[in-house]
Amino acid sequence: MKKEHITKFLTSHLFIVTAILILKIIFLRYLLFGEADITRALVLELSYILIFTTLIELIAGKWKPGAFLLLNLIFSTLFLAVVMYHAFFGRIVTYFALFQLGQVGTINESVSALIKPIYFLFFAEIVVLIILLLVRKYPIGNYSLNKKFLVLPLLLLAVIVSFVNFQAHKDEAISNNVLAAQEKGILNYEALEIYLGPEGQTAIETDISVENSAELMEEVRSLKGLEYIPPEERKFFGAAEGRNLIVIQVESMQSFPIGLELDGKEVTPNFNKLIEDSFYFPNTAQQTGPGNTSDAEFIVNTSLYPTAFNPTSQTFADRAFPSLPRLLKGEGYTTSTFHADDISFWNRNELYPALGIEKYYYGEFFSNEDVIGIGPSDKVMFNKALPVLRESHMKNEPFYAQLIGLTSHHPFHLPEEHQGYELPEEFEGSLTGEYLVSINYMDRVINDFIEQLKKEGIYENSVIAIYGDHFGLQQSAIEQRDVDLVTELLGNEYQTIDRLKVPFILHAPGISDEGETFNQQIGQLDMMPTIANLLGLPLDDMVIFGQDVLNHQETLLGARYYLPVGSFWNEDILFIPEKGFEDGTAYDLETEEVIPDFEQYREDYDRVLHLEYLSDAYMKTLPVRD
């Protein structure tokens, strides 16, 4: 090749933009994986970039500068989305998450809080090039390269290399999707996810008919090691029969603030007092999927696993779920839910009918009074809900009301007039400190609501369930200072086992008065059957994947979004696979230390995968709503 041809190629859009994009993906790999492996980036990522750049070189013509700038902008935006998604969720974003882009406007404060100045390096040269293009000093020549002898061979080579990489990793199963992207290549991983689709999990052979509820429940109990207990032999069965049910879902509430004192001041004094005459489950596993808060609503109403890669409120929004609201409606209850956010957020306008909830109060019902973060404050929410509950009470109609908190949402910026907790100096200006202040706010407004229930005469004839929907402090989304502060509060290193622990308080006046703390490991899937037991709902004809934890001590719980597929809790450990079982990590639930020999738990790993598969298969058989 002549010297002028080499110079022409090295100063072309094709070469320069390809080089810029490969440098950006090396930078992205460094941000995600803590390594800048140039060889792996060239082998796994370059061919995919070349497919796009050579195609533009072939077809763009006089629009080439704009087309290459647009391609650069699209890739840079994708890379930014990947790194920010990883920071918040601890996962690599896939095309399934594109369905969630409509939610970003609602949580823009959380998104903006995750942006770090270093991320703007993805766009630095684009800004410069656009300015130079506008002042007509664009530095890259708009000439064409030889298509027949250079561009087409490069495109063909890129396609072949991409295909080889694709085939080499197509059947490679890696549970941890961050590790999968690191080893398969980020762009190759995304291509593989598109190929595999949202149901990428391998089907599990089973002789069970998921359409047969009795047969399916027998299999579920067998997999979990549960013995069937007849209703008449269950502790507390029907103890609260006919009572109102009030379920309060607290945004981002983890277990560690409960009972916590800083400089002798309790963070949650009212929760602490309530627990003294409640059934309390401090070791409740978060089991939500990509639907986050909406998944928690789904779980507590159905005791089914949320789908792994797409919000359940979108995937199965057209179904009619057997649910707690439908059971209670059959007992003469009115059913309602209160959430001050926009009802379209996480597709709740479809989720609530799918769950059989009759009335839902949202948005305009709460007006724009006392807006904090993404909506009206929880104080407003509880105050507006009370007259609705009062009306049912005055009519002597038992009711089920689910109230969804919002104020303690990340990034936990509470206006000064609502702050009622004075932080020690070391917590000032930290996200951890702001989080504790927001949880203290929730402690106060929920206590005020309960006091109002007492004044209205509603309290004594009600069961009140309070739980956290998901974590608030994700290690990858917070500064090291905050990790150190939580570590100091816990007295041990802040890790996944702590992050995924949410509280569950079950308060039934006259029934739980003696108070009892259940330290066994349970999950969000167990909330619904436990509540149903108190209310005297046998659930014998209903498919559930949780259990009544007032009567069962056994534990086998899965999670597959904030943890790799195949992760589980049992009575002893939290297990997190990497590629699979063999290279996973087992954490002792009591000491939180790593257990080196965990082969004895392989059967539990296989069982939890089976349970999750059966839950998905069962949901597919449910009837479509009219």
Helices, strands, pairings?
Elements: H1 3-10, H2 13-33, H3 38-44, H4 46-59, H5 64-89, H6 108-114, H7 124-134, H8 147-169, H9 177-184, H10 186-196, H11 213-224, E1 244-250, E2 261-262, E3 265-266, H12 269-275, E4 279-285, H13 293-302, H14 312-315, H15 324-330, E5 334-339, H16 348-355, E6 359-362, E7 371-372, E8 375-376, H17 378-394, E9 399-404, H18 431-456, E10 462-468, H19 480-490, H20 496-499, E11 501-507, E12 516-517, E13 522-523, H21 527-535, E14 556-559, E15 567-570, E16 573-576, E17 585-588, E18 594-595, H22 602-621
Parallel strand pairs: 1-9, 1-10, 4-12, 4-13, 5-6, 5-9
Antiparallel strand pairs: 2-3, 4-11, 7-8, 10-11, 14-15, 15-16, 16-17, 17-18
Structural overview:
The chain has 626 residues and is α/β, with parallel strands linked by helices. 43% of the residues lie in helices and 12% in strands. It contains 22 helices and 18 strands. It has helices spanning 3-10, 13-33, 38-44, 46-59, 64-89, 108-114, 124-134, 147-169, 177-184, 186-196, 213-224, 269-275, 293-302, 312-315, 324-330, 348-355, 378-394, 431-456, 480-490, 496-499, 527-535, 602-621; strands at residues 244-250, 261-262, 265-266, 279-285, 334-339, 359-362, 371-372, 375-376, 399-404, 462-468, 501-507, 516-517, 522-523, 556-559, 567-570, 573-576, 585-588, 594-595. Strands 1, 4, 5, 6, 9, 10, 11, 12 and 13 form a 9-stranded mixed sheet that branches. Strands 14-15-16-17-18 form a 5-stranded antiparallel sheet, with helices on one face. Helix 2 packs antiparallel against helix 4 and helix 4 (46-59) runs antiparallel to helix 8. The radius of gyration is 27 Å and the shape is globular. The mean pLDDT is 90.
